[in-house]
């Protein structure tokens, strides 16, 4: 899956861009944690502590998107979660784990976005490939996280993503369109205004309205 261009845009300009625009930008100079598993480049950096993830984002035009992404698992409350149940809505996937500093830094923005966009039919799902419930649940309680996270220590959810969009750092945030295809990806800390702009563009597709 190859973006059509690598032009850089600020979040404000992104809001004015057409949905066919494809961009890589928003250099935030923030570190992202090693994902500690997976394949390819993930294995190369798994033992190096921190991996550069500067908050840059990539968008794919509708015609260039791959998928649908199929992610399912069990959340930390023991409930089954399958994003196929959300097909027709916009879905945001976020990889994280409790000891990851940028994951903690971005958590308040993700919580705000989940609450703000709930009425627009936007669903957020965390993917945690490191923590058991004893580590993950205090994180969720501390930040009052309103959306579920999959316990992905078996790496099945990340493996489902890897064949479509590379997950090279934690946190990574992926925005799926209503067909479950990858519309955008943020590598590293997801800055709130950037993620909102990316979600708004996908919501506006097919005549929809942003939140």
Automatic annotation (TrEMBL):
Residue span, Thioredoxin domain? 61-204
Record keywords, A-Z: Cytochrome c-type biogenesis, Disulfide bond, Redox-active center, Signal, Signal-anchor, Transmembrane
Signal as UniProt keyword: yes
Compartments, as annotated in UniProt: Cell envelope
Asked if the Swiss-Prot or TrEMBL record annotates the protein with the keyword Transferase, the reply is no
* Any Gene Ontology CC annotation: cell envelope
**InterPro entries assigned to the protein according to its UniProt record, in alphabetical order:** Redoxin, Thioredoxin-like_sf, Thioredoxin_domain, Thioredoxin_ResA/DsbE_sf
State the superkingdom. Bacteria
Q: Which GO terms describe its molecular function?
A: oxidoreductase activity
Per the record, the major location class is: other
Q: Where is the signal peptide?
A: 1-31
Record-level GO BP terms: cytochrome complex assembly
PROSITE patterns attached to this UniProt entry: PROKAR_LIPOPROTEIN, THIOREDOXIN_2
Protein's name according to its UniProt entry: TlpA family protein disulfide reductase
């Amino acid at each position: 899956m190859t973006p059509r261009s690598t032009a850089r845009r600020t979040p404000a300009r992104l809001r004015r861009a057409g949905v066919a625009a494809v961009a890589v930008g928003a250099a935030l100079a923030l570190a992202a944690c090693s994902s500690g598993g997976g394949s390819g480049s993930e294995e190369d950096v798994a033992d190096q502590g921190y991996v550069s993830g500067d908050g840059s984002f990539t968008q794919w035009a509708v015609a260039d998107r791959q998928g649908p992404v199929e992610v399912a698992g069990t959340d930390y409350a023991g409930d089954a979660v399958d994003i196929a149940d959300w097909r027709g809505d916009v879905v945001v996937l976020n990889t994280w784990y409790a000891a990851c500093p940028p994951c903690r830094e971005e958590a308040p923005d993700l919580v705000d976005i989940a609450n703000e966009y709930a009425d627009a039919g936007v669903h957020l799902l965390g993917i945690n490939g490191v923590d058991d419930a004893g580590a993950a649940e205090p994180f969720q309680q501390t930040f009052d996280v309103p959306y579920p996270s999959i316990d992905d220590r078996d790496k099945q959810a990340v493996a489902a993503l890897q064949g479509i969009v590379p997950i090279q750092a934690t946190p990574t945030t992926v925005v799926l369109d209503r067909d479950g295809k990858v519309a955008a990806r943020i590598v590293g800390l997801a800055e709130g205004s950037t993620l909102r702009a990316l979600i708004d563009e996908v919501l506006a597709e097919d005549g929809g309205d942003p939140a």
